[in-house]
Amino acid sequence: MVQDASQSRRNQNTQRQLQGGSAMVPATHPFRTLVVVPGSHTDGTFEHLCGAGSRHAQGDVWCVDKSVAKRAVQLDLRPDPGSNGHRSLLITWDSRLVHQGHTHMAGTSGFNPPLFRPQFIPAADDAAWLGSLERHGFATIADVLPPEDVTKALELLLCDLQHFEPHLRSLAEVREHHLPHAMGANDLRASAGLPHGKFAWFVRTHRGVKRAFERLFARTHPGEALTGSVDVVALAPPFSTDVTVPAKQWLHLDYSPPQGRIFQACLQLFPETVTAGASWERIAVMVSKAPAAWAKPNTHRSLLSCCITGAASRATAGVTRGLIHSRRGSPQLSPSGRRLLPELACAPFALLTVGADGKVDSTNVPYCGLRLAKPMELARTMSLEQLCSFLPQLVQKYITHAVVLSPQRKMTPPPLLPLLASPQPPGSQASSAMIQKNCIAPRPTRQRGLDSLSPLRSRAAIAMTQSCCIALRPPRLQGRTLATTGTQMPTVPEAVKHFASFLRVAEVSDSDGTDEYLGTVSSQAALHKRPAKRRRIFVAYP
């Protein structure tokens, strides 16, 4: 009873401390909100829900305590009417704060905490919004993006969505069936490459967002490099919420690393006109950052792999542990059968289309196989330097500053390495222009690539020297050529039918780059028996 009375007093004090806020009349149109339990980051609620010494001691748990849920409020983030309202809002919160996403609907059934109007603090007033974050566990920072950058961001969003639906002329025309599927009953989009569209990257790398996170960690980690997340985008066009479904309570705690306090954020945009998207329930990008020193060994490789393949990371667990949103059971295409392929240093932003027959149109899509790979597979098999070499420097620096700068890959296929020569295999024909364009050089190793092959293995060497071979990517990367200026090669099983023989396969270890195995491949079945953890180069003769 004493504990209950003490908790009640703390709740009353917390409500009195929410200065600058006010009750709000419910809106007639649905809009997305953030539900928070003010003060739950410091009043013992975090420890109570996690359980000291349990496997959930660092958070990442659901809140099933009804007494905690009763303290929740919905934050009304809509700008004030008129010209003085904010055009952008950075909502940031302590990872130890109990929270959830929510759609506010007038007269709805189910979970419906009181609507609360927080104080919108100017971005330049660091002391005010940092003080709010310290006291309440959250802060709402107004106009982190200037109006002209909000307009540009909305234009980039429309451009991204027009890749999925070319007929769209404005954001006012967008509906739920135009967008990649959300994760569950919310507006969070992690698929079809949308988290790596031009809209998402413009927002997460904006100088205003960068400055806010630098201020968040200035007291505890001044001047330290920060690792940025590549989280989901939050897009809820008009009429995307089913108002007949009761709202659910899913209050939770995200992962809080043992090294110290970490923060999540949502940068939300508020268009001025219906054409620009004013009728949307939410247009936002989720962002998390942490000191780079907190990252586990695989974290940066995992995040860089997401940037190549278009996957999304998991907020605080992404920037510290390298966790990403699962793709299992989630279609990686928009409803129209399209997928955005992220921009690389060696390939432009591209669109992949899958026809009604299930066939992929990858014509003139460079590095298609690489960009369609599984992100965790790339993270396991490629070094940090290799992953960075595929990505623009803006992306590299956002993820990690501690990289050994290596020459970035060019837009054209790399030249073949010089190899030892011997007579050409019997029956081999002269190479065609198409074959020359689709040749790929193996990566140099400690033994200088494959130029140390013995005479017994030199038939493959002479073929590569004279550009009479085709090196195909392994099946785990969809069996496609790494780069091409001509017709895209078919997958490896299909390619076997078009060549007289597969003579040699060079397998290169992932750890140190030395040659570990050279053997003969004579059948299609043998292609799938090689260890998946090693990169392979198949050499074929036409």
Describe this structure in words.
The protein has 17 helices and 22 strands. With about 550 residues, it is an alpha+beta fold. The strands form five sheets. Strands 5, 8, 9, 10, 11, 12, 14 and 15 form an eight-stranded mixed β-sheet that branches. The protein is globular.
Termini separation comes to 84 Å
| Coarse shape | globular
Task: Outline the low-pLDDT stretches.
Answer: 1-7, 22-26, 412-542
How is the main sheet built?
Answer: 8 strands, mixed
Mean pLDDT: 74
Key attributes of the depicted protein:
alpha+beta; disordered C terminus; five-stranded mixed β-sheet; 542 residues; eight-stranded mixed β-sheet; disordered N terminus
Question: Topology, please?
Answer:
Layout lengths: L1 H16 L4 E2 L7 E6 L8 H6 L8 E4 L3 H4 L3 E3 L12 E7 L4 E6 L10 E3 L2 E3 L3 H11 L1 E5 L4 H18 L23 E2 L8 H7 L2 H10 L9 E3 L4 E4 L15 E4 L7 E7 L12 E10 L7 H11 L5 H7 L16 E4 L8 E5 L5 E2 L6 H4 L3 H7 L2 H6 L3 H7 L33 H5 L20 H8 L4 E3 L19 H4 L5 E8 L6 E5 L4 H4 L7 E7 L1
Compact overview of the structure:
The protein has 17 helices and 22 strands. It is of the alpha+beta class and 542 residues long. The strands form five sheets. Strands 5, 8, 9, 10, 11, 12, 14 and 15 form an eight-stranded mixed β-sheet that branches.
